[in-house]
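Re-run requested by the PI after the first attempt was lost when the workstation crashed. Everything re-entered from the original request form. Ligand of interest: 8RB.
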Amino acid sequence: MGGGLAGPLLACLLARRGHEVNVFERRPDPRVKGYEGGRSINLALAARGLAVLHEAGLGEAMLKQAVEMRGRMVHPREGQINFQPYGRNEREVIWSVHRGRLNMLLLDAAEAAGARIHFNQRLGAVDFSSKRAELINDHDRTARSIDFDQLIGADGAGSAVRVAMQRVIDLHQGVEVLGHGYKELEIPPDADGGFRIARDALHIWPRGGYMLIALPNTEGTFTATLFLRKGGELPNFEALSDTHSAQAFFEAEFADALALMPGLAKDWTDHPTSGLATLRLQRWHLDGRAVLLGDAAHAMVPFHGQGMNCAFEDCAALDRLMFEHADSRDAFAAFEAERKPNAEAIQAMALENFIEMRDSVDNPDWRRQRALELLLADRHAGHFVPRYSMVSFTRTPYAVAFERGVWQRQLLADATRGLDDVSQVDFAQLDARIKAELPPLTEQWMTPLP
Ligand code: FAD
Ligand code: 8RB
């Protein structure tokens, strides 16, 4: 269920194994009608998501239409714009990809692999005892029933599969709503159609309690996103309900960005303010009959840019485990056991990265620690790998990256405490601690991509 990002990718992998796969998507076919009213929405694709696309034979096609982002371009309120590389070389980058084009590529691949995709089909009620599901067409207001062997919920954060499962068993759902919401805004190209700010970076305007970010699109535009409290302490979205107050807010807080956004007033009213939350479940499956993956199982806040990457890893894992276990109950149980600790780890790291992005990137202590982190990454390649790098440039399980990150951050904080400059650090002592306590990352997590 769901023809977004995970659904068609998983359908492609499963159909190639010989499964009979039907994908039901509530929206119309984007390849026929055009995508999301023509708005360019982009996502950051990192190594682990790309690795699964390569596995499906789609990596090269996607990279052709991607824009490389080599680091953060930080736009402080005062002072110089500064560039902070994400990695240590030209391979350690993330890619900005167009959601609509990625979706269409995945739909084509799923069909080519033999899966059938049915659009304008919204899941309604499910009878798990007879394994029948109701599908509703909201356009012609018709409904029908289908029989299934296994129902896989790739239907996103508001999953109807999850709602149906909850009626039969308690999934122990917990939702942690973030006090911040977001709004998307556009930075158009310059008069010659070129990029108005560096195209090879993810731009961040950190402002402490809130921030603006922008990711490049191939067409010379940027999709910018403002993350701001919904209500309560000022500034907040509630207090910026009209375009005049929004304009004044941008003049005071994001003056250089405002100069790039001639359409701010229109975007402000046309685009909704949306919410953000972390969704946690204790159970992801109903014996061998139904299983959830992607946002349906573990929606997260966006601040590590890993929601899609994690959903793609889920697809690779479920495909492999359904191949390894003849009984779907065993496959789904193994999937939950393998993926839930990793989903919980990236959910936690995504929440933490909000603080880092909106605050720390501008903070001298943090920058000293980051400088030392990069030095140690060079001195102990494969052993001391910065947490951001483990998450974005390797396939290290998220739970392992989280655990090693805790230890590494403690070491960075201890080593830089009271120092003005990283050159004063006692490297002999640090090198010994790292050698004694940080085994190398497993080679298979580090494998370079094709
Ligand atoms: P989705 O892609 O949401 O797909 C779910 C599909 O199910 C949809 O097509 C929906 O129409 C369909 N559906 C829903 N209900 C029903 C129903 N009842 N019946 C039938 N079909 C149904 N992740 C990253 O890794 N990097 C990023 O930079 C990034 N940026 C993002 C930017 C934005 C603005 C947003 C909103 C998310 C971003 N994410 C990013 C997260 C990423 O989009 C999700 O984690 C990812 O799409 C999850 O895939 P999914 O297949 O589980 O869900
Ligand atoms: N969902 C991203 C990063 C980490 C960047 C860094 C952060 C927008 C909604 Cl907020 C964000 C990152 O640490 O320097 N990599 O990729 C993508 C991000 O936001 C996306 C565009 C987004 N996701 C709802 C809005």
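Saved to the shared folder this time. DSSP finds 17 helices and 18 strands in the chain.
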